[in-house]
Specification:
There is one protein chain. With 338 residues, the protein is mainly alpha-helical. It is built from 14 helices and 4 strands. The chain has 2 domains: 102 residues, no CATH class; 175 residues, Alpha/alpha barrel (Glycosyltransferase), CATH 1.50.10. The protein has a two-stranded antiparallel sheet. A two-stranded antiparallel sheet has the order 3-4. Its EC number is 3.2.1.4. This is Endoglucanase. Keywords: Carbohydrate metabolism, Cellulose degradation, Glycosidase, Hydrolase, Polysaccharide degradation. One of its GO terms (molecular function) is cellulase activity.
Length: 338
Amino acid sequence: MDTPRTVYKVDRGTPGSDVAAETAAALAAASLVFRKSDPAYASRLVARAKRVFEFADKHRGSYSTGLAADVCPYYCSYSGYQDELLWGAAWLHRATKSPSYLSYIQTNGQVLGADESDNTFGWDNKHAGARVLISKSFLVQRLGALHEYKGHADGFICSMVPGTATDQTQYTRGGLLFRLSDSNMQYVTSSSFLLLTYAKYLAFAKQTVRCGGVAVTPQRLRAIARRQVDYLLGSNPMGMSYMVGYGAKYPRRIHHRASSLPSVAAHPARIGCSQGFTALYAGGANPNLLVGAVVGGPDMQDRFPDERNDHEHSEPATYINAPLVGALAYLAHSYGQL
């Protein structure tokens, strides 16, 4: 591929609190993974996370303000940078247990949108994830100073429980959680991951969620999440697995350049950027199987046309797959116990 891969940066003059705080969150989270196997590396990750978060908080602004011409409209920071600051602080508190990050969350939480009623969790909006993560400090670590975050997390979780007065989520007739027509599966996988994560915290604390007067158990949250994963993997009206290469029936014409263009072995000559449109509108299955990729999924009527130029439903993305990994890991580990 010889398409230009331009590198952009954020700095004091062109701040990007969202991308910087997200980076700090990733570094802090990664430090937990390496804490036992490579303590020195884990310490480096935490040290860098602190520096990046300090930059994000000190030089506030959204990356898409200064880089609008390059990242918008597809990847504008529509939710702003406040959610990432809360998300970054939450992960740094989790990784360091430093009172300074606890104080930051307590002092800035409301200003950063801790109690906002947005009920999506994805690449752009981290509020729901931050609420669930911070609630762990109360439910598992018994940190009473953060008790209000259980209420914030409960509000998000209850919005997805069917049949309760607090339910704000649409489901298709086949049972799929449906937020938006464009790449809806990202919300399915991210919501399933948070449902399972919160169920784990509640089970540890021997607590339930009160949803409009109804006590919702961890077992019910697990069942809702498992139903979503089962649907994604083929238990749906079309009998279609939305993970490429899994099951007997799965998407064959996904909206993905490398999957739809011929391989270099089959076509040694250069293929220019604009020449890719020939493959985009061609019939037949993609020549290269992108095994494991999860596409945007069906529409509100559980229909999936499997058309390459239908990016809303046929495009795979890392932000669809990433939370699914967590959900699948939980379900595989808990098999027979749900």
